[in-house]
Amino acid sequence: MAPPPPPPPPPICFPFTNKKPRRRLSWSSSDRSRSPMPPGPSEKNIVRHPSFSPTSTVTTQAESITFHSDSEIYDEVPDTLPILKDSKGRPKLARSNTMTGSKKWGYGWGAGRKDKEKEAEAEAEMAEKSSSQSQLPLYQPVVRRDSKSTQASRRTQDSARTHDTHRTYDSQRSKASAQSQETYRSGGSRSTAPKPRPPLLGALQQHDSTSTLVGSAYERKINDQESIRTKPDTTDRLEEMRRLMAKDNLDYYVIPSEDAHGSEYVAASDKRREFISGFTGSAGQAIVSKSSAYLFTDSRYWLQAAEELDENWTLIRTGAPGIAQDWIDWIVERARDTRIGVDARMISHEKALLINSKLGGKSSKLIYPPQNLVDLIWKDKPTKSLQKVYIQGIEFTGKDATYKIAKLREWIKMQPPDRSYPNKTPTAADIPVAMLVTSLACIAYTLNLRGSDIPYNPLFHAYLFVSLDRAIVFLEPQKLPEEVIVYLNSIGVEHQGYTDLWPFLRKRGWGEGRVLIAPQTSYAISLMLTSFRYTVTPSYVEHMMSLKNETEIECMKRAYLRDGVSFVRFLAWLEGKLAEGYDITEYEAAWRLTEYRRKNKHFMGLAYENISASGANAALPHYSPKKSSAALISRDHPYLNDSGAQYYDGTCDTTRTMHFGRPTTEMCEAYTRVLQGHIAIDSAIFPEGTSGRQLDVLARKALWKDGLNYMHGTGHGFGAFLSVHEGPQSFASNVPLVPGHVITNEPGFYLEGKWGMRIESALVVRKVKTRGEFNGDVWLGFERFTCVPIQTRMVKDSMLTKEEKAWIKEHNQKCYDKVAPFLKEDKRALKWLKREADRGIGLAAPAAGIHIDWD
Fold this sequence. Notes:
Elements: E1 23-24, E2 27-28, H1 113-130, H2 150-153, E3 173-174, H3 178-186, H4 215-222, H5 235-247, E4 252-255, H6 272-277, E5 285-289, E6 293-297, H7 302-308, E7 314-317, H8 327-334, E8 339-342, H9 349-359, E9 365-367, H10 373-377, E10 390-391, H11 394-397, H12 401-414, E11 432-437, H13 440-447, E12 449-450, E13 463-467, E14 471-474, H14 482-490, E15 494-496, H15 501-506, E16 514-517, H16 523-529, E17 534-536, H17 540-546, H18 550-579, E18 582-583, H19 586-598, E19 603-606, E20 611-614, E21 639-643, E22 645-647, E23 650-651, E24 654-658, H20 665-682, E25 686-687, H21 692-705, E26 716-717, E27 726-730, E28 742-745, E29 748-751, E30 755-758, E31 761-767, E32 779-784, H22 802-819, H23 827-838
Parallel strand pairs: 1-18, 2-3, 4-8, 6-7, 8-9, 11-16, 14-15, 16-17
Antiparallel strand pairs: 4-5, 5-6, 10-12, 11-13, 13-14, 19-22, 20-21, 21-24, 22-23, 25-32, 26-27, 28-31, 29-30, 31-32
GO molecular function: metal ion binding; metalloaminopeptidase activity
Organism: Crepidotus variabilis
Cofactor: Mn(2+)
């Protein structure tokens, strides 16, 4: 009898194939459709939703995304760990669209008294844990259901239909549990904090979660419905604009993106360029002529602008070959006996002087209409914010406001007299006696105050005038609560109305002497002061602000550690859900990361719009997903997440690029080059006096070897609970880097229409010890804040040097050492973090007949 044939070899198991069916995340029926970035506030939409909110800061959809995992059964956390606030009332979770025979049920759908008792015991245990301030925040433990809960759980419906990676989905809703409704009515529980967070909306109750948000985070809470944005028809707006231009006999009218303070992010009432053009990017200028309209923006926004502009507009891609480098060169080139209008408040002194100097020989000039022409046609323009300002404690700032004002006055005394006329003997009128501060970040820094007027920034609209014997802050009196008025009096600062600045300057309220202003001050102030009353000089406040003291640095370390814990939990969750066969959109991923962050101590909102991008969207450096159009995260292309949060103790900015499948050789080679540039900056040692611009080549050198490059800057300064972009230091600046400067390190590469990648970490400049001391030079290097591992799946081992391999291993091990103690209760995240610290570089090719576990 012939022997039976041998059994067939086992199949090769590639990632995410033949494992589980493609599934979608489901949502709780108690949640409405909400978006993190909707337009315009409306108090009538304020609703307290029954979502789990340990810090009671933001309503959420992502928290109600249903899943069930063993990694969410948390062990007791050591008492030595720092805690963030927690509360009761987490939405009930369930897995949808499960396979027959492997159903795992959610909890909270009335499975009997015994189950309710278990849930109550679990919540009591969490309340006991959350009473300590020495722990990180915990999610409530999953209360497991026995088989008796099956009948109750059948009410959970399949949440969505699976679409392709460029389409959206429709989700079903399930009813909220009685427990969630009770939490809704009670406002949730809170643990005791060292001091209450400042209320940002007086009309709301103290327990309402908007009381802890800043800037746009407040707007997103009020407007939890995302409207589907349509391309506006600007025909009528442009016709009305040209009618007003004709009254002033203008050939061109310029609409900058900045506000009167030169802010990068502006309030809704200052989005004039967006209103007239429809372009929503944060950088760009609009110019309207008698017959045409032009939008100028850099490479970060070319594709976005092309999608958002209607047929009335022509996109000018500044920086492209054969195109003007900026709008100033473009308009000067076309100026011949022309009158160019611009609101003098919206253009800086520096730019106005530059344009006027270039127009001088062309019989052309700038014209400053008394009213902004966009404001005259903007019928439903939003009103300015009247949110209260609040005090930033010295435990976060390290220096009190009295000290900062005293240092500013010392600097004013040291400034030489104005010598515009060298042969003239200086008089009292030539001596600098005051400084006018117009930058919102500089004002907030100097006074140790924060506010909520600007999206993503804890800033408030104001001007600050400091003379040798007087200090005045100009802001709306409605923004000043009683405790801030008392505080201002205690530090010797007067307060006047926001618009009172103009009569003060006109009447020369400081007396004799010159006022110092920064080059970025609006030209309207220069015109008001006249050239005999001001001197232009680099801002000393900006210089002070850029040099972080040890208290600020230590606070930033803690903020980045907490943020790193959230990022690790997010990446572990995302990889786990994709491995289980779920389809997750870019929008859902961004929401989930925000949910992890919002549970952190001192969380005050996002630092900028989440950049959560997969596939071709990742090739857009400033892409931000919308719920209505977000793509599904691809398993065949890199996924890029660039996001950050505002905390009382720091402003965070982190980018990581991941791949959840098997990357191509082209992806691996590009990613390795980006990583080599990142390593080169991180490990650089340089002599004192070296500027960021001189180091920039280190980040690009590896990419240049393969003929690759990126168009954006390599890195920028950032604030201490201020703006995410801060100067004067950057890798594009000639300002020397000095100890105390903080800066990001973010090289990248983008293959248009296919994929993109970027790796970003935050650094602080430190003095370093070297074996040699050439000529007694002081040598500097970087210390890293960021505590998020760098994925090695796309790294090509053969391209790395021995030192680079050692750096990667050391980096990921340090992340493990710092973050692991805070993940004792999160088995999934701890396992993921340990794996990233231990794993090798790249992916080995599978041998035939071998089953591969893509851990």
